[in-house]
Specification:
Blueprint (H helix, E strand, L loop, with lengths): L14 E9 L5 E8 L2 E3 L1 E4 L6 H13 L7 E10 L2 E11 L11 E5 H8 L3 E3 L5
Parallel strand pairs: 1-6
Antiparallel strand pairs: 1-2, 1-4, 2-3, 2-7, 5-6, 5-8
């Protein structure tokens, strides 16, 4: 007999995190971050229980970050513990030539080294190597 342990948690009243990996034409990568008063963070989205977590993230990216969500490709979904809160993290990717990379002032494209430094503070489960 095989026993599996599956951790389930509700997204009700929770936040969802996301980032986008931008594949630059020069071969480098940049990561979407949100400018917060305390520094850079992943894109944080309040969960609207009327929609899926993915729908909430895509709606936020479309309305606030002003990126064409139809060009994004979901490459990873993992879980993290950030500031003692458990939340899913959606990771998308896009090629520079497929979107307009200009962002509103609240958002930035950060180099991989800054992104990795930022997420090193999180307790991640199954985070891919970028």
């Amino acid at each position: 007999m095989i026993c599996l342990s599956i951790e389930v948690y509700s997204l009700e009243n929770k936040q969802i995190a996301a980032t986008i990996i931008l594949h630059r034409n020069d071969g480098s990568k940049r990561f979407l971050t949100e400018n917060q008063a305390q520094g850079q963070s992943l894109l944080l989205v309040e969960n609207d229980t009327m929609h899926t977590g993915l729908a909430n993230v895509l709606q936020n990216i479309k309305e606030n970050v002003h990126l064409d969500v139809f060009q994004l490709r979901l490459v990873e979904l993992t879980n993290a513990k950030i500031a003692d809160k458990r939340m899913p993290i959606f990771v998308f990717e896009v090629k520079e030539e497929d979107i307009d990379i200009r962002l509103p002032a609240q958002y930035s494209w950060k180099e991989a080294k800054y992104f990795m430094q930022m997420i090193s503070e999180f307790e991640l489960q199954g985070m891919p190597i970028f």
